[in-house]
Specification:
single chain; 225 residues; alpha/beta; Rossmann fold; 2 domains; six-stranded parallel β-sheet; two-stranded antiparallel ribbon; 11 helices; 48% helix; phosphoglycolate phosphatase activity; HAD_sf; HAD-like_sf; HAD-like_hydrolase_sf
Length: 225
């Protein structure tokens, strides 16, 4: 017997929000302001390799705690600058997918590696403040990806009946691993992030790799969930 998906957990940047260099562009500005040119290429590779994870945890993997905190503040300021410059747009069709799930009685949660302040800034830029049923950041859940905390918090807060009733979708390996670690009934990867290859996403073990989130309703219909 299949379990109907009751809660859909969608990543933001790269999955529902078009990432036109928002993360890498903000990191470039932040690193140059805080660290200069030294180790930039190494640091950028680390940021790309850990895409989808909590940003403060990513920065802690590069520099000392004090430097990581300063880098995080600079990163959030750079995100605000880029949002003001108009780099934030929705993935085509993403809003319709979210509204379609809600019309079917499913709850939709957006998760992110951003801080609450940065997440809200992006949501306001899109006019999405009231679109999802809830949004969750790593600090609110306890741990960021690939830990299962954010999907499980979404399950609890939406009142889903079981982990089998949970679908988790993202554009990075850490998104997929977070969904698998949570025991989600469906874990899908999407190719719209641009930082992970299909091979890398498939190696993380998703239910399916999709071209974009717009293919998700058809996948759930195909699976009968």
């Amino acid at each position: 017997m299949t379990t109907r998906i009751e809660t859909v957990v969608l990543d933001m940047a790269g999955t529902t929000v078009l990432d036109k260099g928002l993360v890498t562009g903000a990191f470039t500005r932040a690193w140059q302001r805080e660290q200069g040119a030294e180790r930039f290429d190494e640091a950028m590779r680390h940021v790309i390799d850990t895409m989808g994870m909590s940003k403060i945890e990513v920065f802690r993997g590069l520099v000392s705690e004090d430097e990581a905190q300063a880098l995080n503040v600079a990163f959030e300021a750079a995100v605000a600058e880029l949002v003001a410059e108009g780099v934030v747009e929705p993935i085509p069709g993403a809003e319709d997918v979210i509204r379609g799930f809600q019309a079917e009685g499913r709850r939709v949660a957006l998760t992110t590696g951003f801080s609450r302040e940065t997440a809200d800034l992006v949501l306001r830029a899109l006019g999405w403040e009231h679109l999802p049923d809830l949004t969750i950041t790593p600090a609110e859940a306890g741990r960021g990806r690939p830990a299962p905390d954010m999907p499980l918090m979404a399950l609890i807060r939406t009142g889903a009946s079981s982990v089998a009733a949970l679908a988790v979708i993202g554009d990075t390996e850490s998104d997929v691993l977070s969904g698998r670690n949570a025991g989600a009934g469906v874990v899908a990867a999407v190719m719209t992030g641009g930082h992970a290859s299909r091979e890398a996403l498939e190696a993380a073990g998703p239910t399916r790799v999709l071209a974009s989130v717009v293919e998700l309703p058809a996948l759930l219909a195909e699976l009968g969930v």
